[in-house]
Every structure is written in structure tokens, then in C-alpha cells.
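Worked problem 6 (solution included).
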Amino acid sequence: MAFDFGALFSSQSQPLLGLDLSSSSVKLVELSGSATTGYRLERYAIEPLPKGAITDGNVENLEAVSEAVKRAWKKSGTKIRNVAMALPSAAVITKKIMLPGGLSEEALELQVETEANQYIPFALDEVSLDFSVIGPAPNAPDDVEVLLAASRKEKVEDRVAVAQAAALKPVIMDIESFATRATAERVIKLMPNEGEGQIIALFSIGAYTTTISATLNGQAIYEREQAFGGAQLTQDIARAYGLSADEAEAKKRADDLPENYERDLLQPFADNIALEVTRALQFFFTSTPYSRVDQILLAGGCAVIPGLVDVVGTRTQASTSILNPFKGMDMSAQVREKQARLDAPSLLVATGLAMRRSGQ
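Solution. The predicted structure is:
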């Protein structure tokens, strides 16, 4: 089927699953409730992917990814087949544009397409295009500010094909950074004074890439990616103990490693993460008008490394904690709470996608 990128900014009232395809695993989250009534985590699942199945956000092995999605869906115990998915931020061009207010929907679409030609380096028939009216334009009350989003059609179609091969129905295609921000914003609102006036830096440490985003009063003020992630630790384990990459990853997840692992590999890796965080903050300070960070939030599988929060906090001299996307949520009887706390920092994107059923 031809999937319309136009679902990007819509919401769905019917239940759906948040389905995140990352380079290392498939992650699935089901929520009930809403932002108004409060959310409840009904179930979730994580299924590892073979190395190279997804590379740089591209689906390289559709069969392996769809099989992992099937296993995750079955493991979760859900009956829901509607899914919200996301494209990597690097695969999407986003641009804020100003348009005259009061246009009909049809006239607005035509204007958006005309404007899109200026910003998209591809023919329009090669892209999936969507837009959302943000509101009145600053300093120009007769105009409206519109957010434009576009991606190559094949990027969207690859993800749709994965879901369909797993007998699921994609109804929303979001952007990973948007989903992450939605999750973070909900948790930040649980902070004292809802985090007002605080510069909050989120470090989401993936397998190969760390995404850094800083917000102030709900507005993104900085975003950047750097090539660093948990796969480095897996490589260190494989090298030190003569294992394959898959064996090293499995033993790392199962905490089935020799006694000297924590001292010889894990703690030096934690120190390395802290160094990368410090470098990233220096880059933030030198490339923006800001000279401080009030809170650091750590996410991704590496966030739960023992002692990492303390190491980062000491090195950066900033209040540091792990971002738990389920903070303040009830949990169903199907969820093992202790395991969910360990897995939670890896589930930011999937949680943000699952929240889309209520228009978040």
C-alpha cells in the first residue's frame, strides 16, 4: 500500500503500539490512558537484532527485522496491531515556514508544496511530505507558522514493509527526535516547577550514536549527534574474552561475565562516557549563547551502567539522573517492575510513539 506521511502530525483515538526500530533491537510499548487521566504501562518487549540488520537508520535486512518485530509482538502478549513508527531524524528534513493566515486546507497544501520546493533537494514525487500549523507567526499576527517535514519515500516504505511483514498496521510515521522529546517533556513536567527556567540536556546513548538535545521551557535549543555508543563496550568484551560480537552482546545483557569485567572494562567505559558527555557540553557552550546546564538526563541502554550517574555528575558538576520514561505511570500486572526499571532508559522513542494515541 502507499503509506501517507500525512499521519506524522495526527493522533489516533484507537489503541496503538509504539514500535521503535533501532540499530541494535526492536522495541515495542503499549500504554493505556492519556496525558489528562495519566498513563499506564500495559506491556512492552525488546527483541535484539542481528548485527547489520539496520545500519545508519536504513533497513538492510527486511526479513530479519520483521521476524524480530513478530517475536517482540508475541513476547509482549498484546492483541493490538496498529503501530506508530518513527524515522531517524537524519532521514527527515524539517523546516519552519511562514504562510498567510486564513487559507483553506487546500490552499495551504498548495502553498506548502510550493515552499517545500525551496528546501527539499529532491523532486516532490520522490518524497513523503507533511506539515502542521503551529500557530500565529511571531511578530506577524496575520501569518501562521507551519512546520514542514519531508523524507524520501523509500525510507518510509521500508519501515511500513517491516510492520506489514509482521502482520501489523502502521498508522502513524513520526520522527525519532520528536518522539524522544515528547517522552522527555512528560517527565520534565513532573520535576519541581515543571522544570521551568532549567536548561536540561538529554544524552540518549544508542549502540553506535549518542544523541544530545537541550531544552529550555519546553523549547529545543540544541540538537546534535556524535558517533559513540554501547557497541564499543560490546567490542571491548568480545576482544577481552575471545567472544563473537553476538555472544558478547548476549553475555552483556545477561550480566554473565567474569568477575574482573566491572573493574577492567565496565568502569573504564563509564569514564569514557563521562568524557564524551563533557566534550559534548563544551561544544554546546561554545556554539550557543548558553554557558550552563542545570540538569543532565541519561538514556539508552548504557544509562544503567553502575556508577555512571555519579561519574558524569562529578565530571560535569551538574545534577545528573537517569530518564525513566515510565516515571509517574501505573504498571499493569503483566509488567515486571524490576526489569522495566532496567529497560526503561532504552524505551524513550517507543514510549513517545505509544503516547501518540492521545495526540501527544
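Discussion: The first strand starts at residue 17 and ends at 21.
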